[in-house]
Amino acid sequence: MKRPRLLLLVIATLCLAALPASAGEQTDGPARYVNPWIGTGGHGHVFLGANVPFGFVQLGPTQTHSGWDWCSGYHYSGRMLRGFSHLHLSGTGIGDLGDVTFLPVADEEQDSTAFSHDDETVRPGYYAIRLQKPEVKVELTATARAGFHRYTYAPGAKRLMKIDLRHGIGWDALSSSSLRQVDGRTIEGCRLSTGWAKNQQVYFTAVFSSAVKLLSCNDNIYTIQVEDDGKPLLVKLGLSAVGTANAKENLEHEIPEWNFGAVAREATRLWNQELGKISIKTRNEALRRTFYTALYHTMVAPSVFCDVNGDYRGADGKTHQGNFTNYTTFSLWDTYRAAMPLMTLIHPGMMNDVGETFLHIYHEQGKLPVWHLVGNETDCMIGNPGIIVLADLVLKGFVSDKEAAFQAMKASALKDERGLGALKQYGYVPFDKDEERETVAKTLEYAIADAGIAKVARLLGHEEDYKYFLDRSQSYKKLFDPRDGFMKGRDSEGRFRTPFNPFHAVHRQDDYTEGNAWQYTWLVPHNVHGLVGLFKNEKAFTQKLDSLFLAQGTLGEDASPDISGLIGQYAHGNEPSHHIIYMYNYVGQPWKAARLLRQTLATMYHDDADGLSGNEDVGQMSAWYILSALGLYQVDPADGVFVFGSPLVDEAELQVGGGKTFRIVSHNNNERNMYIQQVRLNGKPYPKSYIGYKDIFHGGTLEFTMGSKPSKFGTSVKNRP
Amino acid sequence: MKRPRLLLLVIATLCLAALPASAGEQTDGPARYVNPWIGTGGHGHVFLGANVPFGFVQLGPTQTHSGWDWCSGYHYSGRMLRGFSHLHLSGTGIGDLGDVTFLPVADEEQDSTAFSHDDETVRPGYYAIRLQKPEVKVELTATARAGFHRYTYAPGAKRLMKIDLRHGIGWDALSSSSLRQVDGRTIEGCRLSTGWAKNQQVYFTAVFSSAVKLLSCNDNIYTIQVEDDGKPLLVKLGLSAVGTANAKENLEHEIPEWNFGAVAREATRLWNQELGKISIKTRNEALRRTFYTALYHTMVAPSVFCDVNGDYRGADGKTHQGNFTNYTTFSLWDTYRAAMPLMTLIHPGMMNDVGETFLHIYHEQGKLPVWHLVGNETDCMIGNPGIIVLADLVLKGFVSDKEAAFQAMKASALKDERGLGALKQYGYVPFDKDEERETVAKTLEYAIADAGIAKVARLLGHEEDYKYFLDRSQSYKKLFDPRDGFMKGRDSEGRFRTPFNPFHAVHRQDDYTEGNAWQYTWLVPHNVHGLVGLFKNEKAFTQKLDSLFLAQGTLGEDASPDISGLIGQYAHGNEPSHHIIYMYNYVGQPWKAARLLRQTLATMYHDDADGLSGNEDVGQMSAWYILSALGLYQVDPADGVFVFGSPLVDEAELQVGGGKTFRIVSHNNNERNMYIQQVRLNGKPYPKSYIGYKDIFHGGTLEFTMGSKPSKFGTSVKNRP
What we know:
2 copies of one chain form a homodimer.
Chain A: H1 2-17, E1 50-51, E2 58-63, E3 80-85, E4 101-105, E5 113-114, E6 120-123, E7 126-131, E8 136-142, E9 146-153, E10 160-164, E11 173-183, E12 186-194, E13 200-208, E14 212-218, E15 221-226, E16 233-240, H2 244-254, H3 260-275, E17 278-281, H4 285-297, E18 303-304, E19 311-313, E20 319-321, E21 327-328, H5 332-335, H6 339-346, H7 348-365, E22 372-373, E23 376-377, H8 385-395, H9 402-413, H10 420-426, H11 439-460, H12 463-472, E24 480-481, E25 486-487, H13 517-520, H14 528-534, H15 538-548, E26 566-567, E27 570-571, H16 590-603, H17 620-630, E28 632-634, E29 641-644, E30 651-657, E31 660-667, E32 675-681, E33 684-685, E34 690-692, H18 693-697, E35 700-707
Parallel strand pairs in A: 31-35
Antiparallel strand pairs in A: 1-2, 2-3, 3-4, 3-5, 4-10, 6-7, 7-8, 8-9, 9-16, 10-15, 11-12, 12-13, 13-16, 14-15, 17-30, 18-21, 19-20, 22-23, 24-25, 26-27, 28-29, 29-34, 30-31, 32-33, 32-35
């Protein structure tokens, strides 16, 4: 009986072929260079679907699969969808969200649908797929707080819609759901869940273009019968973390009409606007796609987390009324390193609100955010990255109430939780008190945060606090074992961890965090010269740094999967390594950095589904690419000094706010000419191998002249960062 | 603003008063003597609502309260209902069920309703209540597998119905629910939950007399809009543990029409039929109500647990097809003592199916039931009471495949779980191996079961098994400490527990089960003479027994709440004491029993909501009352010997099956004349203080002549049991 089925399939395909073409046409702007598939394979874990820059809503397909590679709900290898969900994470190592999932079904038993990538069309702000059962073309677009669906059914196709409020992604577990029919075309409901975010509340109001009838609810999966009026079915769905009335207001404000094409075009326009913050020149088309896709990935989060009326759900679980734009999804352990510094360059208009969000979180939960997800403190990863980000914002001139910011930083740093109590007592986090794991990583991360507070204290004239936190920012020195030149765990009596193996790593159970001693020994971005000083001499430091990229050893079976993208023991696939290559500038050997940067840019990023060497980490992996491709990197995450690397693009123009632009030109640049020969800033020779944030922020032109051989540029002591 | 509200209330009351009177009229049969409120207060924990004898469905009110006194979902002290649920337990010490709850509401926010007992009308098979918000009279009746609701709304009252699939009672926790609209007047769904019963599956099909529309689902609570056609709303709901199609078939088979009054009358007729199995004569109306209510309470469970087509859900969680009536809710640790023996007297027609159920459970779970709840083995309480019940059935001539029954008993007794492994190794359950708790209770309970197996082995000619289990049935002797005459915990080296306090009890943590050494020392119902032999002499035993009813001591703060109904240390409120008074017959002092029995009957049972001295325990507490009021009690739960007590009723006629009757007449009986002077069986003098099951089962007349003073009756050694 196979032939009749094949025949039916052919007819089905013909029917679908007869459906109208996709609404939003291809764009002219930089959005056309985005390849949304990059990072959907391998272990990139990126979101695929329709959203607007920094939008609350990420409307896209969610697959039936589970496991580490489905943290965003979608992986290139998957072949079954459970529907189209309104919230997704992008690039995390833990799965959550995946809320409010629509699936057009042919009968009530159907709970998923097979699909092929051939039937998918994706670009920033727009996702489309042709399904066979029922025969329907699904198109999705979004605004910041609402999703817009268009279902173009083949004639006679059954119009049943399942709304799955039961399933989430990864750690997500339903607490309760609700759905009610408000009128003939409107439903509203909520989905409360616990997971990575302990208390996630999603409220929604959905309006259909045809009459609907609630048929059934099966374990929090609702089936709706949609009237067949012969037209494509449109569904507009507003979301809110506060309540259904707010969801309705968000929807009415953001999608007042029924013009799907217009909303899709507006989403693309918003992407072009934000992606246009950096325009580049390059002859390499793959590079262009990799670059703009990376830039696109840096703008999925932080996500707007307040309603159009200013209401938002605070870290205390309560509803607050704000006169600022509240944000969420702060993967700060990752993003303090490059993603947030990049934002200060091209999204300065957002940064006051980011700072305001941090201060409100501080008031709501008693400390600055660590890893914030849909308004919840997850305390994920370690350290106090929120302090670092806020310090950087203050030092760069953002945040109106700098004193309040300082007090929030100080209070957060003086708590007794997560090893801070032991740090205060012993001057480092010993591995035999309170905290017994990741004590090296914690000591080093806290030192970076303390350096940030110290700088802000100095700026505001808090002399005593400056001294206290400056002293604490040096605590990394206590973990350095001069006998072999590694950062090591130390007990409360001061004894270094034995036995010791610099290669060995046990995920979240040893003295490091997703890394080993080889990788963590360099984690002093706030005081590179201090680190150099721990070695016998600069040469010893440099030799050790050289050996990092050559060292071969076994991580062991229990090592973190995050330790990826290895060059020797340098692990580009995870964040603690991200600043290391640029350390060569601090010892006058920028050419060594140039070679390694070009190697990393060329081998760790590709115009391909498997194009990322590790988790995207909510924009950090891509932000490293953007900055490095521009030839810049902020090694100290809280001081505004961007160190030169080796620019990959021939020319770049950054919209740095207030109508000003900062141009970067790389003369004589090509694959071989990777070494900076000389630099000019605003036409004048510029001998330093770094540039301050203010010089970029005020606009201007930075010109690199490249060559195929290392030069003297940046070698003299006075020109090093 | 209080006056307008009061005025509204008056109007509301007038409107309700205008509603039609209750459908099922008062009955002529014994059902009219049932006071369903008995045991709804205090700690009786009985079910209140509409059901038929041994029906799967118990349709009645469920209150919003939680806690130990709401194991049935309803307690006399409660004032708020969350609705009318279809399944309830009666008299347990753990809460579960409470599935599929209907609540007429005035708006979608309403989730409960205040009520007054003044507005309730209850009799066997029928429950009615008048509610104020919305103004509606709710009437409920039931068949074995279906519930029938009638809602008579005041004119203009809003017709919204909430169907709560979220909440259960006590330990019940929802796993998932489902509800779908099948057509304009039909819904179907399921509720899967875990709790005391690990895997409870409830499927239902409900048909409404008016058009309905599914409006919303809020966290597994569904709101239905019912069309107002000006008539009372009828809802018929079929249940099944197998599936919705079976639920539909059950409904169509049991309630094919829409005649609520006829179904309610049929429910009452069934109760009259079953309650009529015992007709009594007494001038004491309170006694009559107490008696028939007790009889009513012995017929809530076991409950039918199969569909009209024979399908049932087995102990393996799978669907089976049976050619017998499968039962569930076997509170065997309680009911093996009196409730099941009573059933063998008045429900002989059910007992083959009970035996068949046991054998199927054995095949499905590898052992006979311990405490079976909606098809789940809960392993609640201790021992192997299922063996005792099955042995009694076999010995009384039930169960066609006696060899299969024997093999099931033997296999269940030879398992290694729950202390049986240690019992096999040490000859008792020591408190320092495998099992460390309740080891005295376990040893004693297993000995009772082993005595049952030994008798069946002897009956079937299994000589070796007979010897083995007879030997094991004597294991109680190993725990008797002759130094002070108490049963005590013993370690594997044979050392008795020290320090020792015969009064002290720690709930489920010490050597006993809901009891202390005073209460457990007598738990040898299968070998009373063996127990007597452990004492220095019969006098020593009798003195000890006398002192039980006088001993005063402190149980301690952590004692079980089940140790209630105390006379000295005799605890009538819990089962291990139930046979003790009758032990006087074994030492020729039945007059002592008579006095204590009359005291217990008079003080532990009342025609009052607080009329039970402890948990009803699924019929056991009431069955003790029935048998004792008849003057009979089966001390050894597996031998069919009923020991005489002190009959309370003047005359009783038992329908013992096959059209035969067994009459018990108490001449000259009154409150003072509590002592048996002489006995005649079928007109002939009968000197023995006990009677065999066969003498009852074959029908006949037993005449007691009572007097106000102890007599010589039953004193001589040859006439004792």
